[in-house]
């Protein structure tokens, strides 16, 4: 455990983890302070006790560093309830137990230090008590016992102002849930509510979720920029000449798209009790946030949106998202649209339009059209981009024959005869094209006389 305010780190040792070794950092040097032992409460032999990190805190109170230990059971037999033990940790000399704060209750607690006052929050009763170690207490010759300076009181209800995108800043502040079981305390005076804002019971308003996404992606973007800078420098050969240039590491918590997709959104869309419009709004908020920070959205996020829309028969919304390019074009997305044709026939044309916009997807477009027996459309497309001299005749003749439309087969066969004549001076197919089967079929249906004859000049 580290206290940046005092530059002291605590390491726990021994089997019970209750012997603490402090180190003090100053001006680039490290000093090893004396070890000290945290007295664990008495317990039956069958119970294995050990010191838990969540029961330890470090804070500066009246200019002195203290280690606070939340002991859930008193060591004395005539006392009930939990207590907070304060160990004074000086820069020089041994650590000494100085104060004990009597809570007189049991349950889950959280500690904060504000204006040199120790504030202890009690979850069960949703109240907080305040201690001041400067006030006179009961001294037993070793330590001073303190009681709350005021009766237990609840924290005043608080509303969180919205700090999300400009479009939602006009929203009303959101009430903060106090004394939550998901509270995580950071000393001296920070509390983070670690509840899942996407759960049905604690569901947050969309502007709050947008703010969370923006904070996550702000850090994500900084990491991506650092990674890109390193890559560019390495490619330029600066990594060898500059020994200080190092690949960035995730020293802070960075949630990338795959993390959010795998651990948050995939599970979120499966919640049957969640309104589907809210689910889609959350997915689109995450995509909006990525776009806002100029982070390229991965296709699997768009696929998740499409699958969710289809699951709830929101085809009109799907059409709008694609028509106005809310969902970015990609080959995987186009293939997904093709698979939806049986549920939503316009998906076929939407897929083709997307593939056309992808300049590197010409082969996929031809394959799609051929698989739908649209042989002439495929041929027109490939001629339109100037690739008809290099395409496989056999592939198109196979597709034409599978349609069982003899006139279509005749048209395609004639096209390739003419191509052969133009390129090689002969309408005949070469052995390497493996079209013997189709030549035989053409003769069978239309007769030998229908074949083109070589033109001589």
From TrEMBL:
Pfam families: RMC1_C. Residues 193-431 form the Mic1 domain. It comes from the Eukaryota. Signal peptide: none annotated. This is Regulator of MON1-CCZ1 complex isoform 3. The lineage of its organism: Eukaryota, Metazoa, Chordata, Craniata, Vertebrata.
